[in-house]
Write a structure and sequence with these properties.
Radius of gyration: 19 Å
Distance between the termini: 7 Å
Number of strands: 11
CATH superfamily: Luciferase-like domain
Number of helices: 13
Strand order of the largest sheet: 1-2-3-4-7-8-9-11
Order of helices and strands: EHEHEHEHHEEEHEHEHHHEHEHH
Shape: globular
Structural class: alpha/beta
């Protein structure tokens, strides 16, 4: 059966609120949750930036379904520390915690003063960090001097089975590269031809048969006008290419970039509709592409209405896909 999950946005809600929401999502019938991991929000209008790793243990304890996170090793987090955090959660909550990694955005990673390299260099560092983490999960004592430095690190607390590393990609080029070394793919909703190209590139690059996860952004509220207004207030930066999004440094820069984005410009990246049958149809199309797990992020702040209505009208039909 496919998994339709709930996306917990630390940029938009305080951690205590997100904990209540993830409990409500499980009660409503969502089958899993995923967490963002930001140091700064995309805009001041979003207004929050709780520490994801502090929250993850609480979320896993408060629920019984799988919970995962998308993070970036190698800058704000040393890969040995990420490996230790992952191993601890995976040991406590066997089979329920999952990890996705990406090459990151300057917005979050610049805060340590680390040089922010070009995309090719970030990709190389990401793969190097993945190699370090896998060696640590295998019980090896790791000394490594490359793009990151590790000195005689060994994890004494490890889960029974080594965690999988899901690679995050937005473009077909990155997806193809990930197919050769990642244990699965996490990508985001985009127009069908581009999303199909990402899927095909991942499979052609070595990802055939590996799990694929998708995060979709929707705007759902009491009226379509309100849904569009909230999407514009909270997530207008989504219209920009990922290459630009990776380079902006602060919420103020994102707000400046989005100054001339109109509410009607958002449809290419956000599914704005009050029609729950349409939302269900969109999700069926995602599943037909081969995604095993789809995580729905309502970018509007009215999370309760979204959770209740999707739980009552959308999720039951998808359970039979």
């Amino acid at each position: 059966m496919p998994t339709i999950g709930f996306h917990a946005s630390h940029e938009q809600f305080a951690p205590s609120t997100l904990l209540d929401l993830v409990r409500a999502a499980e009660r409503a019938g969502f089958g899993a949750a995923m967490s963002s991991d930001h140091f700064l929000p995309w805009s001041d209008a979003q207004g929050q930036s709780g520490h994801a790793w502090s929250w993850l243990g609480a979320a896993l304890q408060a629920t019984s379904f799988p919970v995962g996170v998308i993070t970036v090793p190698g800058y704000r987090y040393h890969p040995a520390i990420v490996a230790q955090a992952v191993a601890t959660l995976a040991e406590m909550f066997a089979g329920r915690f999952w990890l996705a990694v990406g090459s990151g955005e300057r917005l979050n990673e610049h805060v340590t003063g680390e040089r922010w390299p070009a995309k090719a260099e970030r990709n190389a560092r990401l793969q190097e960090c993945a190699d370090v983490m896998r060696a640590l999960w295998a019980g090896e004592t790791v000394t490594h001097r490359g793009r990151v430095t590790v000195e005689e690190a060994k994890l004494y607390t490890r889960p029974a089975a080594p965690p999988r590393i899901i690679g995050a990609a937005i473009t077909a080029e990155t997806a193809r590269w990930l197919g050769g070394w990642a244990d699965g793919l996490l990508t985001v909703s985009q127009p069908a031809p581009r999303l199909r190209a990402v899927v095909e590139a991942f499979r052609e690059g070595g990802g055939e048969g590996k799990p694929m996860l998708l995060q979709v952004k929707v705007a759902y509220a009491g009226s379509e006008a309100e849904a569009r207004r909230g999407a514009h207030e909270q997530w207008r930066s989504l219209v920009f290419d990922s290459a630009l999004l990776a380079e902006l440094r602060t919420p103020a820069e994102f707000e400046a970039a989005g100054r001339f984005v109109r509410p009607e410009d958002l449809d290419a990246g956000i599914r704005i509709s009050l029609d729950l049958e349409r939302h269900a149809a969109w999700l069926r199309e995602d599943l037909a592409l081969g995604f095993e797990q789809v995580y729905v992020h309502n970018v509007h702040r009215d999370q309760r209405r979204f959770i209740e209505d999707f739980g009552a009208k959308v999720l039951p039909g998808l359970a039979r896909v």
